Amino acid sequence: MKAMILAAGLGTRMRPLTDHCPKPLLEVAGRPLIVHHLERLRAAGIVDVVINVSYRADQIIDALGDGTDHGVSIAWSREATPLETGGGIRQALPLLGEAPFLLINGDVWCDLCPSRLPDLGDDLAHLVLVDNPDHHPEGDFHLDARDRVRAEGTPRLTFAGLSLLDPALVADEAPGAFALAPLLRHAMAGDRIGGTHHRGAWVDVGTPQRLRALDQGLRASLRSET
Fold it and tell me: What is the pLDDT of residues 137-148, one digit of tens each?
């Protein structure tokens, strides 16, 4: 299986930290956030990685190169301007191929092992969902008793920014910028989206405050292990 890490965003919520450093290279516990993703992928046996870049793209590419230093092989998908999630995936399809792939938002941190996720079967996607954080109490989707993801219903859970996707979900869309969420909701209406409720550690690293909290938490965990 291949993986795609979304790293093309402008990082506006992280300013001023991202004025001169792209968000994927912001450090957590001594390593760039995106390196934590690469290490977790390698540990799960996923070594073919596609990364889309736009804002300060050269900085990210220069820092990671072809991935050899992190035990993976990186293919880069450059975007002249950010294409949003759906458009970014659509542009990267020639690098991803026709098989389902793991999609990771570059600005989350999660301790989920990707190998725990089930095969897609006839589904177009399998979403990882988490309990609603304080900054997003209304959640995104409902996970029913059959582990099917629904656009409506309660209780609500938050999309963790990790998923398995079938390229067919976006393959028929015209190139250009477009969001992924409407395509997911359409597939939910056709009962083609499954989900997993992850109850482990997860952080949406969307603000400088949450970045600091994650950094402090990981450093404390590392100290307790030594």
Answer: 999 999 999 999
